[in-house]
């Protein structure tokens, strides 16, 4: 196992296989979309597999496939099959918007995919269309049903946005009554291709919990799993659980075990940094596995203490404020 300079283990890689997406969620990118990477600038699956093998030897045990939307890239299931065979990896998961996912769920279960995070910000079809700029709610709900039938652990990710879907907090929480799902409410972040929508974040993690407790006064705090980004709650008698992620407030940085690799091969040791290592350049420049290992360890030894420090360093060193799309970062 490897540790960063703050003695946090690094065991979890979020791997973006594409920056492309079939939705246009307004909190992720502008309506016209973003300028997608040319194909030659995106890591090949073979390059990604090599990186995962190197990181697995260093102690990374979990890989979550993200995007963009992973299933817009052809050949994904064959790639996941190869990842599932890598020694040292014991957890292969995915984050998806669910539009194209349902036909692949049987194969995912057979591969041993442990968990899927399903993006779902509302159960109202018209609000879904306004938020995502696409009318795809039925397809997403079909995926949710298929995931549960396949026995894959399912987490529903809902970004809470003022004036957009706060009326959906309680209906989404109510889903935990009869379904074994973890509904996770996420503070909105500025990674939308435009910068922050609001000068002040009104729907903080505390306010979200207060809103749920106003309807479910017996809401109970539950123990959080190790390295969890969410604070876990449960309504007595409900099958599922509720999570609240302080993604903007950044209350969980002290136990963060995650790193990210973008589709173009940029290593991010914090969601809020501007990228700390050009892995693609190393790969295509002929670096050996030993040289890759040295470069990774060097990057891990200079990791910021938290997202606030990473953001400050980013602005000081590059002068580039946060304005990119989450689609280019990788979930």
From TrEMBL:
UniProt keyword annotation of Iron-sulfur present: yes
Binding site residues for S-adenosyl-L-methionine: 27, 68, 119, 189
Domain (Radical SAM core): residue spans on this chain: 5-218
Domain of life: Bacteria
Cofactor: binding details: Binds 2 [4Fe-4S] clusters. Binds 1 [4Fe-4S] cluster coordinated with 3 cysteines and an exchangeable S-adenosyl-L-methionine and 1 [4Fe-4S] cluster coordinated with 3 cysteines and the GTP-derived substrate.
Annotated GTP binding sites: 14, 64, 95, 155, 258-260
Pathway membership: Cofactor biosynthesis; molybdopterin biosynthesis
The protein's Enzyme Commission number: 4.1.99.22
Keywords, alphabetical: 4Fe-4S, GTP-binding, Iron, Iron-sulfur, Lyase, Metal-binding, Molybdenum cofactor biosynthesis, Nucleotide-binding, S-adenosyl-L-methionine
Cofactor: [4Fe-4S] cluster
Catalytic activity annotation: GTP + AH2 + S-adenosyl-L-methionine = (8S)-3',8-cyclo-7,8-dihydroguanosine 5'-triphosphate + 5'-deoxyadenosine + L-methionine + A + H(+)
Family membership: Belongs to the radical SAM superfamily. MoaA family.
NCBIfam families, sorted: moaA (TIGR02666)
PANTHER family: MOLYBDENUM COFACTOR BIOSYNTHESIS PROTEIN 1, MOLYBDOPTERIN COFACTOR SYNTHESIS PROTEIN A
Chain's role: Catalyzes the cyclization of GTP to (8S)-3',8-cyclo-7,8-dihydroguanosine 5'-triphosphate.
Subunit structure: Monomer and homodimer.
Protein name per the record: GTP 3',8-cyclase
């Amino acid at each position: 196992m490897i540790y960063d300079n703050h003695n946090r283990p690094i065991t979890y890689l979020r791997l973006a296989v594409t920056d492309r997406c079939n939705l246009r969620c307004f909190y992720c990118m502008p309506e016209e979309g973003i300028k997608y990477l040319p194909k030659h600038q995106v890591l090949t699956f073979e390059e990604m597999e090599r990186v995962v093998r190197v990181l697995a030897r260093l102690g990374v045990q979990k890989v979550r496939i993200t995007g963009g939307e992973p299933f817009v890239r052809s050949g994904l299931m064959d790639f996941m099959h190869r990842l599932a065979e890598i020694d040292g990896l014991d957890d292969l998961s995915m984050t998806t918007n669910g539009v194209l996912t349902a036909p692949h769920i049987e194969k995912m279960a057979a591969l041993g995919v442990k968990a899927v995070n399903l993006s779902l910000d509302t159960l109202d079809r018209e609000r879904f269309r306004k938020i995502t700029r696409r009318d795809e709610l039925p397809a997403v709900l079909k995926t949710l049903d298929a995931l549960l039938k396949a026995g894959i652990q399912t987490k529903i990710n809902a970004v809470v946005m003022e004036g957009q879907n706060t009326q959906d907090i309680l209906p989404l929480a109510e889903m935990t009554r009869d379904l074994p799902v973890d509904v996770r409410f996420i503070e909105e972040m500025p990674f939308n291709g435009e910068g922050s929508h609001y000068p002040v974040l009104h729907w903080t993690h505390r306010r979200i919990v207060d809103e749920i407790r106003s309807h479910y006064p017996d809401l109970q705090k539950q123990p959080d799993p190790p390295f969890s980004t969410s604070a876990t709650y449960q309504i007595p008698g409900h099958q599922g659980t509720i999570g609240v992620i302080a993604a903007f407030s950044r209350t969980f940085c002290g136990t963060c075990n995650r790193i990210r690799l973008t589709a173009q091969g940029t290593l991010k040791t914090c969601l809020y940094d501007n990228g700390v290592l050009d892995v693609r350049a190393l790969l295509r420049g002929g670096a050996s596995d030993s040289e890759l290992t040295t470069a990774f360890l060097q990057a891990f030894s200079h990791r910021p203490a938290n997202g606030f420090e990473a953001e400050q360093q980013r602005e000081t060193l590059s002068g580039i404020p946060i304005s990119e799309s989450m689609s280019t970062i990788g979930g």
